[in-house]
Design goal:
Radius of gyration: 41 Å
Bound molecules: phenylalanine
Helix content: 25-40%
Number of strands: 9
Oligomer: single chain
Number of helices: 11
Structural class: alpha+beta
Strand content: 15-25%
Shape: rod-shaped
Strand order of the largest sheet: 1-4-5-9-8-7-6
Largest sheet: 7 strands, mixed
CATH topology of the largest domain: BirA Bifunctional Protein, domain 2
Length: 337
């Protein structure tokens, strides 16, 4: 009899469960009407008188232990159940932080998109460039100030960080026969003090078109198509004479002020015009340097800073913002693609 009490007590102590059904089944099989403990009570009358007291005490203790065990297990199981139910399935999920495209990338893609509509392909080249591709082939005279340490980051006498992506166009001309119609987007470097208006690196898209009989008028129409697509149908352009070693004649292209539409404001310094790119007819010396016959072929080239275009589209007036990675700035830009 006493042995039975001890065995059952061990069983009660060993039992563990978080499952309410299992706990209830346990309760029934020990404390239910036909349960193990209940039936021990029924055998109480068979216990010899001298043991009745001890047996009674032990049996009560067993019953209480089992009842307590069932209660605690049920409470724990309910707690677990409650914490599961605490999940509010109707709550909006934690937002995942999706990045947005950098404004320079957005504008670069737009520029590429516009030129691809009229058949320009995209060419890329190295940012670390040799003197030939960055300067010599482009007809820079030996003593030209752009070769000066002030403008160029030299790595050695012959190697520098490219100062423009015209270097890519030299590579294209060396490797392909006309007709050539390509743009070269990319990062360029200039040894400038960093300020709101200048940076030691920026991004360009330069373009090149070479074929038989390409004229200055072709260039003007191409660039007019670009500016209208970029800044709006009402945009006007003007070409001012300029100088670049690799183009002859050379020009600067202005667009009618995107802010005041040509009326005059502080962005265009009350002139109504904004300078956005350099352009011109490829100098015959450059064609010759790249083994293209200047008697047969002619072409035009142009080059613009992406930051400058982005500045006009987004009205951002500090160049440094583009490379500071300030999320408050970057989050403002959303691209359509
Ligand atoms: N390479 C020139 C620059 O970096 C831009 C340019 C390109 C001008 C082609 C004329 C023709 O400023």
């Amino acid at each position: 009899m006493f042995d039975q009490i001890h065995t059952i007590l061990d069983e009660v102590n060993e039992f563990e469960s978080y499952d309410l059904k299992q706990i209830e089944a346990f309760r029934i099989s020990y404390l239910g009407k036909k349960g193990k403990i209940t039936s021990l009570f029924q055998s109480f009358r068979d216990v010899p008188v001298e043991h009745k007291k001890e047996f009674g005490q032990k049996l009560n203790m067993l019953k209480n232990t089992a009842a307590e065990k069932v209660n605690t297990l049920k409470q724990n199981a309910n707690k677990g159940k409650k914490s599961q139910n605490n999940i509010d399935y109707s709550l909006t999920p934690q937002p995942t932080n999706l990045g947005s495209r950098h404004p320079i990338s957005i504008i670069r893609e737009q520029i590429i998109g516009i030129f691809s509509q009229i058949g320009f392909s995209v060419s890329e080249g190295p940012e670390i460039e040799d003197d030939w591709h960055n300067f010599t082939a482009l007809n820079f005279p030996e003593e030209h100030p752009a070769r000066d340490m002030q403008d160029t980051f030299f790595i050695s006498e012959e190697i520098a960080l490219r100062t423009h992506t015209s270097s890519v166009q030299v590579r294209v001309m060396e490797g392909q026969k006309p007709p050539i119609r390509t743009i070269s987007p990319g990062r360029v470097y200039r040894n400038e003090a960093i300020s709101a208006r200048a940076h030691c690196f920026f991004h360009q898209v330069e373009g090149l078109y070479i074929d038989e009989g390409v004229s200055f008028a072709d260039m003007k129409q191409t660039l007019l198509f670009f500016t209208k697509a970029m800044f709006g149908e009402q945009t006007k352009i003007r070409l001012r004479p300029s100088y670049f070693p690799f183009t002859e004649p050379s020009a600067e292209l202005d667009v009618s002020c995107t802010i005041c539409k040509g009326k005059g404001c502080n962005v265009c310094k009350y002139s109504g015009w904004l300078e956005i790119m350099g352009c011109g007819m490829v100098d015959p010396n450059v064609l010759e340097n790249c083994n293209i016959d200047p008697k047969k072929y002619s072409g035009f080239a142009f080059g613009m800073g992406i930051e400058r275009i982005a500045q006009l589209i987004y009205e951002v007036n500090d160049l440094r913002l583009y490379s500071e990675n300030d999320l408050r700035f970057l989050r403002q830009f959303k691209s359509a693609n």
